[in-house]
Amino acid sequence: MSDDERPVSPAELVEAEGALRDDILASETRRQEALIAKDLEALDELFDEALVHVHAPGEVHTKALLLEHVATRGVYLQITRGELKVRVIGDVAVVTGPITNRMKAPGGGERTLSGEVTQVLRRTGSGRWTFISFQMTPYGDKVWGRLPSERDEKGTQA
After folding, report:
1. 145 Cβ neighbours under 8 A, 6+ residues apart
2. Rounded to whole angstroms, how far apart are CA atoms 42 and 31?
């Protein structure tokens, strides 16, 4: 088995720290600011040509479609992120964590949607981090509850 074919060890996927973490999170901050400002030039630089962006209701956009979505609909009013987990393997970063989007509603007014997001970025040859994948899963009913290993010390589902 060649090095290109061998399975990736979980140990190789490490938490990003220091300047590396800061650089990746700075790209996420720029993405948020550019979406709200409808800054298509900044978004064009941040979004990789291979971008696959999956919106909360399951609508899938390529880079071109997402740029068109932002330009024609301009829905993003505020984006709030919670604590983000940033992991890297080589020149690929995986960012996961909560998000709340305050947006314009299609029929007028506003709507707010919260959920968990997984984002994948790659470091380009120039050292910039670009987004290649975005997937938002909105919060919903947690019908199964916590797993036994997730229960608190008293055995309750905290």
Report:
1. 157
2. 8
Q: How many other β-carbons are positioned within 10 Å of the β-carbon of residue 155?
A: 8
What number does CATH give the domain 12-141?
3.10.450.50
Residue with tokens 């505020």: 78
The pLDDT tens digits of the residues spanning 11-69 come to: 588 999 999 999 999 999 999 999 999 999 999 999 999 999 999 989 999 999 999 99
Which tokens sit at 143? 């019908």
DSSP 10-75: GGGSEE--HHHHHHHHHHHHHHHHHHHHT-HHHHHHHEEEEEEEE-TTS-EEEHHHHHHHHHHH--
pLDDT tens digits, one per residue of 136-151: 999 998 888 889 888 7
Residue 13 has a pLDDT of: 87
Nearest to 78 by CA among 27, 115, 112, 42: 112
Q: What is the 3-state secondary structure (H, E, C) of 127-138?
A: CCEEEEEEEEEE
Q: Token match 């829905």: residue?
A: 75
